[in-house]
Specification:
The protein is an alpha/beta fold. Helix content is about 40%, strand content about 15%. It folds into two domains: about 160 residues, Aspartate Aminotransferase, domain 1 (Alpha-Beta Complex); about 270 residues, Aspartate Aminotransferase, domain 2 (3-Layer(aba) Sandwich), CATH 3.40.640.10. It has 15 helices and 15 strands. It has a seven-stranded mixed beta sheet, with helices on both faces. Strand 11 and strand 12 form a beta hairpin. Helix 4 runs parallel beside helix 12, helix 8 packs parallel to helix 9 and helix 13 packs parallel to helix 15. The longest helix is centred in the last third of the chain and has 21 residues. The N and C termini lie far apart (about 45 Å).
Length: about 450
Amino acid sequence: MIDPVARIMVDFVQMKAFADAPFIIDHAEGIYLYDTNGKQYIDGLAGVFVVSVGHRNTDVLESIIDQMQKLTFAPPLASANIPAIKLAERLCQMMPPQFNRVKFASGGSEAVETAIKMALQYHKQNGQPERYKIIGTYGSYHGGTLGALSASGVSSRRASFEPLMGGMIHVHPPNFNHCPLRLEARQCETSCVLQFEEAIRREGPETVAAVIVEPVMNVEGLVFPPPGYFQTLRQICDRYGALLIYDEIITGFGRTGTLFFAEQTGAWPDLLCVGKGMSGGYAPLAATIVADKVAQTFWGEPEDRVQYNGGHTFAGNPLACAAGLAVLDYIEQRDVLAHVRQVGPYLGQKLRALQDGCDAIVDVRGLGLWWGVEFKPDNPTGRPDDDVGKRLERAARARGLVLRGAPTMVSFGPPLTITRDEIDEMVNRLALAISDVLGT
């Protein structure tokens, strides 16, 4: 007889092992999760950078219930709906004036997929169908759908499905902590961004459709390039006629202290992909926000047949868009961005205090409410699940803390509503997990 737990497939998890020790969430409140045994956990990852305004936020729930009593689904091939129209308007009002169109999606992968497909169709409809190549970075992760995965540069995520889409080029990431050329940070900043220009030149500028980057790299290890990197990248794309795509699925909606990380770069893209915290986890919702120079390509008379030729059944769903509107209301009315800018440095301070007492910690870095702690490599058995980051992830869960473990890192992205007292509690649980694993 099959164990009922083993009938589902959890993302990136070996289900035989999961079924032996299942982690099943029953309910949640604020920053806390509770499993089916009643054990409490701090949600140090906001689900997966999604639960921006906390679990069971009554303001958001009330808005969803109100919308449920009016309309839960509208035919996407023939109509729009009021919440979708209102949300698109709100998003454009929050953007620079060159952004006036929104294409909704159900999740971040779809939003990135939309941006890639829009870039390809944009060039075709502007008389350059030979532009089909997309340039990204190694170490990036843009999602699980075929196009988004092809643009990603994480071999462990790609290998099972290769060969993927053609035309995907990758250059080294701006990982100043682990520069393969052993350059200083200032040198690395210049060399990393100039790789894009060299790749465009060698591939042939007439063949390159777009460049896609994560403004902050997650899987690579919480990499924050300086503003000059993006400003130079913007100039390179303009010089060669390539579109620039930002994947702000994680960084959007306040994670780094501003609504979008692009505000901190001084350089805006042509296509901005957002999701995750956009709906606070209350409904599947994402979007591609489109600059006018791209959007006008898809605007014409019916006989012109220039409309964007893509869509998804639940994109722009009225319930999801109502949730998105409620999250934006909450962020604005409670001044959540100011709160993030206040408590984010406090979290960094607490983590650096841990570093002072633990020789195994080699770096603490972060911004807003997204922080990582890097450790010296330590793997006593050589198995992937025995990397120090993975061992700390398991130990933290035993101590009632959910965080993300990578080979040499653990990282945090709690709900943006977390308080200083809750940060103290979260860091204390991490300290206990470090003691359990490393004895320090």
